[in-house]
Design a protein that fits this description.
4-stranded parallel beta sheet, alpha/beta, globular, 264 residues
Length: 264
């Protein structure tokens, strides 16, 4: 099978991240799975631009365009961002599975343990967004109190140093994960597409000897995409339900509206 991973940032600003992402995916994917990474154009220029709701809104159109292109040659699509941007919009427009990292990893956590916590960046707006998304998924009761725990390293610091030193990030995630464990979590999710691969490459898969799993959201997204493709092959389930929120517009309306907004 062939999966497309959509990097929500522009390629020219992701040069340090993309090799890390690919190394992390290699740890998780099936031997026969082909991975292509497509960066959006135009796209966000800085990793923390995602903290702005307006910037993210502008970026969604590029994510959907990338999904449309990828759907012509790939079996499934994974959007590489824990905030799951443009999932509804992309699913409406393509006929292959579109997987979000937060949705995939939180639903997986519900099968592994009773309560989960999410370790993420020390970015207040991102924390609020993640908490809101838990509500949209209907999973507040499966998360611990104060479910989103920031690491104790400022974002600009680990972004600069972590790419060359994954152990730095792994140690910070481990410290935050232990706070989640103290709050009653029996599963921890690393909720950042940049931070999770570094934690995995730093060797972090569980909390010490407690046997509490630490889920890499990127790896969870890859495995979910592979699973969804297998379900399409056997037993032959559709990629998406067209009976509700993901009902697709008429092709003529798609052409008309995309033309109005200057989308090819």
């Amino acid at each position: 099978m062939k999966l497309c991973c959509i990097n929500i940032n522009a390629a020219e600003t992701s040069q340090a991240f993309l090799p890390v992402l690919c190394r992390d995916i290699e740890l998780a994917k099936q031997p026969g799975t082909e991975i292509v990474v497509e960066s959006v154009t135009p796209g966000l220029q800085r990793a923390l631009d995602v903290n702005s709701a307006y910037f993210s809104l502008l970026n969604k159109a590029s994510i959907v365009d990338a999904a449309i292109r990828a759907s012509r040659s790939c079996d499934a699509i994974v959007v590489i961002c824990f905030l799951d941007p443009a999932l509804t919009e992309a699913r409406e427009m393509v006929d292959v599975p579109v997987v979000g990292l937060a949705e995939a990893s939180t639903l997986l956590a519900c099968q592994i343990g009773r309560k989960f916590a999410i370790v993420t960046l020390d970015e207040p707006k991102m924390i609020v967004e993640i908490e809101r998304n838990l509500g949209l998924l209907g999973l507040e009761d499966r998360a611990t109190r104060d479910p989103v725990i920031p690491i104790d390293i400022p974002s600009q610091d680990w972004l600069k140093r972590g790419m060359d030193n994954p152990a730095l990030v792994a140690d910070a995630v481990d410290r935050a994960a232990r706070k989640g464990l103290a709050n009653g979590a029996d599963v921890i999710i690393v909720g950042c597409a940049g931070m999770a691969p570094l934690a995995s490459l730093g060797g972090l898969t569980q909390i010490g000897n407690a046997r509490v799993p630490i889920i890499d959201c990127v790896q969870a997204g890859i495995k979910m995409a592979e699973f969804r493709v297998e379900l399409m092959k056997r037993p032959g389930w559709p990629a998406i339900s067209r009976g509700g929120i993901y009902a697709a517009p008429d092709e003529r309306d798609i052409e008309r509206v995309r033309s109005t907004f200057g989308r090819e």
